[in-house]
Every structure is written in C-alpha cells, then in structure tokens.
Amino acid sequence: MRVHEELVASGAVLSYQALTAFCRRHEITQPPQQPAGRYEFPPGKEVQHDTSPHEVEIAGKKHRVQTASAVLCYSRMLFFQFYPTFQRFDCKVFLTEALRYFGASPTRVMIDNTHVVVLRGTGKEMVPVPEMAAFAERFGFSFVAHELGDANRSARVERPFWFIETNFLAGRKFSSWQDLNSQGRQWCDRVNSTYKKHIRAVPRELFALEQRYLKPLPVWIPEVYRLHQRTVDVEGYVALHSNRYSVPVGWIGHPVEVRETKDKIEIQRDARNIVTHERIPHEQHQRITLGAHRPPRGQGLRRSDSHPEEQAILQAAPEIVDYVSALKQHSRKLVVLALRQLLRLVREYPREPFLAAVREAARYGLYDLDRLERMILRRVQRDFFLLDEEF
Known about the structure:
With about 400 residues, the protein is an alpha+beta fold. The chain has helices at about 1-10, 15-25, 90-100, 130-140, 155-170, 175-190, 205-210, 310-315, 320-330, 335-350, 350-365, 370-385; strands at about 45-60, 60-70, 80-85, 110, 120, 125-130, 140-145, 225-230, 235-240, 245, 255-260, 265-270, 275-280, 285-290. The strands form four sheets. Strands 3-2-1-4-7 form a five-stranded mixed beta sheet. It has a four-stranded antiparallel beta sheet with strand order 8-11-12-13, with no helix packed on it.
C-alpha cells in the first residue's frame, strides 16, 4: 500500500491490483518456493506421542480433558486415552498402557519439547528428566524431541487429534472416566482394523509386519505409582488432591505413607496396617469413607484396656467394681478425672468409712464424688476422732 501511494505521487498511473500482480510475476517480496520433505520410518523404529486439550461431557458435566495419543509411525496403529491433567505420573501411566496395547516397544519415542519429559535443551540437545530416562530404559526405548518449529516431524500424531475430536467425541456422552477410556480403547480397535486411503492399507495388517521389528516387553512390568507423606487429620481422613480418604480412627495424628496408582490409593501406617481405596481420578472435593473405619452411631471408640487409675482402684478395693462401672457412665466429669478423684479417696481415707460411704452412695445412685467425700468425712469424724470430754 505504501509503495503504491509513493508511485502514484511520483506520477505513475497504475492500480493497486496491477502493482501486486507485477510483484507476483517477478517474485518480489516473496520467499522462494522450497520443495517439501518427506520422513520415512522403517518398521519398529518410532512411536510419536503428544497431548491435546478437548471438551468432554462426563456424568452430565463438561470437563476439559487432556487427550494423550501414541501412533506407531510405520503401521499407523493408534492408541489414545483421556486424563484430567497430564503430569509426569500420568505420562508414565499412559505410555505403559500404550506399550501394553501394542504388545511391544519401539526404538524411540518422539515427543514435543514438553517439561513433563524434558529436563533441559530442545531438539537434538534435549536431555530428559532422570526419572523419565529410567522409565524409558526399563522398556528399551529412548526419548527424542523434534526441533522447534518443525511441526511436520510429529505429523503422525498431530493429525489424529482432529480425527478424535470430530469422530470419536462428536455426540458422545460418558458416565465416568472409566467408561470414557473404555470406549476410547474399543474405538481404537475398530479404527485400527479399518482400511485407510492415505496409506492404502489396514493398520492392523501393517502392524503384523512391524511387530517382528519391535522389542518385546519386560517379563514383569511394575505398576506406576507415586508416593505422598501425610498425617491423619482429627476426623480420621487423609487428604490427597482435594479428596479425603478414611482410615481407622486409631490412626488419628499418626504419619502415613500414601501410594497412588492408576486405580487405587493405598494408605500405609506400617507393614501390617494398610488401607486401600478406589482412586478418584480428578479433583471432586469428596470424602470417601469405608464402613469399617467408623463405629456404629452411639458406640464410639472402644478401649481395649481400662484406665490405669481404674486398675489401681480395683486392686485396692475390689468390692466397689459395680460402683466404678456406674461412675464411668453417669459421672458429669471426664472419666479420667473422676477415676483420679476416686483413687485419691481410696488412698487418703480409712477403708471401712470409705466402703460404707460408697455402699450408701450406690444405693441412692449418687455419683457426685464431692458429696461422697463429705459422707466419708462425717463417718471418719464420728468414728475416729472422738475427743475426751476432760479436754
């Protein structure tokens, strides 16, 4: 536009369209055309992995989910799953599920420059996080990242995201996260068995050839997990990702170790005390309570042993066992305070006046220990402190 204005001001007579046509014919301001390249992938060489956000309706509510996808570059076998978030733990869970779905492992896994895997660097200079490097070594592959701006390098996995959004997610509703991923896996089975025009083959048939070049999976694949350190709160729950999981009330105040896996939450106090809950995959601010962790209403927590004060009272005066049991039920004071006061009476006053006062108090249902002490004092004064009239 500016060039056209200057030309017209200098006396040239031409339209703006004529100027742009002249520039196109002589390739002025246009970068030279470069032929497009092509990536060739031999069988078993590479899996491309990436994530993309989508909107999904689960149990009548809209959720923004992260769609994780993996594609074998030679056979175009597709596998995807959905997650509320995609952190390092979720990445390891997904890749484990993907490799189990393929039944083997490739030589390398191509990723974008995501912080989930990348410690530092980009492209060929990328260095993975030690945790992810150890995970890759377990399955016999290595992580590689494409160069910045080289979007075509991950085209095998980028295109299926549009395919998933416009075909699988279109018009579908799901009852739960498990239902969502279960239907996704079934849809992968159907799509991988369908003829593809752009490759002129069926992915499942190409995979039969590629499978010979893939590495076998380890004989034993450990379950992916992450550990958390927590302290049981005063209500008998352990908080994790805004959700709260119940434990026995005897654990209140104790430190516990929480082991989070794909489907379970294991809360361990020691080697013999472990509680298992079904894992809630996303933040719902829920309280999950097992019936065994809460006594029936009105029963409360039953002590396995009596108070030390009660044992001392019954050793000194076993005749008042019924009165002690009734005192624990009817006293207006805390049980431990009432027992301590009764133990003091046993130790400080003569035995006979004490037992006589207790028998009388039990007959009238009297459990006020201050009044019981006055009853003892009256008997002690009458029987043990008779003064000589001469004095």
